[in-house]
């Protein structure tokens, strides 16, 4: 296990991502990490893990997610993206019809690391939002828990953010 990720899971943290405005001034919207963890990759027998963080920007209700890196050195895009987009993709799936990790490539607009979709699929499996499809190698099925889980994240948001929803 990654010691850095273990420490992150122990408490909420503020993560800073810098952006540059048109006038050249750097602004750093802080991200409050609500949940962080590590997921084992999907290859049978794999011990390689991928880290993830779920968070939000203060005073905004949108929940975000990002991949933080792989213990095996595989590259991934580490930018934050809307968790609602992931839930929407899961909502489109039928409970008895397998899908592949390729479903998630649209999140990165088919750009970035080719590992992104598979790494996200491993995270969703770790969170028990998907499960292995028994008849499709590397296929996934939804567990039906994603909407309830996503709504449950609201309880982790500060009270003033919940009141704005």
In short:
The protein has one domain (3-164). The protein is of the alpha+beta class. The strands form 3 sheets. A 5-stranded antiparallel sheet has the order 1-4-5-6-7.
Structure description:
This protein has 165 residues and is α+β, with helices and mostly antiparallel strands. The chain has one domain. The chain has helices at residues 3-10, 83-91, 116-126, 146-152, 159-164, and strands spanning 14-16, 19-20, 26-27, 30-40, 49-56, 64-70, 81-82, 130-132, 140-142. The strands form 3 sheets. The protein has a 5-stranded antiparallel sheet. The protein has a two-stranded antiparallel sheet with strand order 2-3. Strand 8 (130-132) and strand 9 (140-142) form a beta hairpin. The longest helix is centred in the last third of the chain and has 11 residues, at 116-126. It starts with a helix and ends with a helix.
How do the strands and helices of this protein lay out in sequence?
Blueprint: H1 3-10, E1 14-16, E2 19-20, E3 26-27, E4 30-40, E5 49-56, E6 64-70, E7 81-82, H2 83-91, H3 116-126, E8 130-132, E9 140-142, H4 146-152, H5 159-164
Antiparallel strand pairs: 1-4, 2-3, 4-5, 5-6, 6-7, 8-9
What is the percent of helical residues?
A: 10-25%
- The topology string of helices and strands comes to HEEEEEEEHHEEHH
Going across the biggest sheet, name each strand in turn: 1-4-5-6-7
The main pleated sheet reads as: 5 strands, antiparallel
> What is the domain tally?
1
What coarse outline follows from CA principal-axis ratios?
globular
Integer average pLDDT:
82
The structural class is alpha+beta
Distance between the termini: 36 Å
Number of helices: 5
Integer-rounded radius of gyration:
16 Å
Low-confidence stretches: 1-21, 161-165
Strand content: 15-25%
Q: How many strand elements?
A: 9
């Amino acid at each position: 296990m990654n010691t850095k990720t273990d420490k992150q899971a122990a408490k909420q943290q503020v993560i800073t991502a810098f952006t540059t405005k048109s006038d050249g001034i750097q602004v750093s919207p802080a991200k409050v990490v609500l949940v962080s963890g590590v997921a084992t990759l999907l290859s049978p027998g794999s011990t390689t893990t991928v880290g993830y963080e779920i968070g939000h920007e203060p005073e905004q209700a949108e929940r975000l997610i990002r991949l933080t890196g792989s213990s095996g050195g595989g590259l991934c895009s580490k930018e934050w993206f809307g968790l609602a987009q992931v839930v929407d993709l899961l909502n489109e799936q039928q409970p008895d019809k397998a899908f592949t990790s390729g479903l998630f490539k649209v999140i990165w607009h088919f750009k970035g690391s080719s590992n992104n979709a598979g790494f996200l699929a491993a995270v969703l499996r770790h969170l028990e939002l998907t499960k292995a499809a028994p008849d499709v190698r590397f296929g996934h099925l939804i567990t039906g828990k994603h909407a309830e889980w996503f709504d449950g994240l609201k309880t982790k948001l500060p009270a003033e953010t919940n009141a704005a929803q």
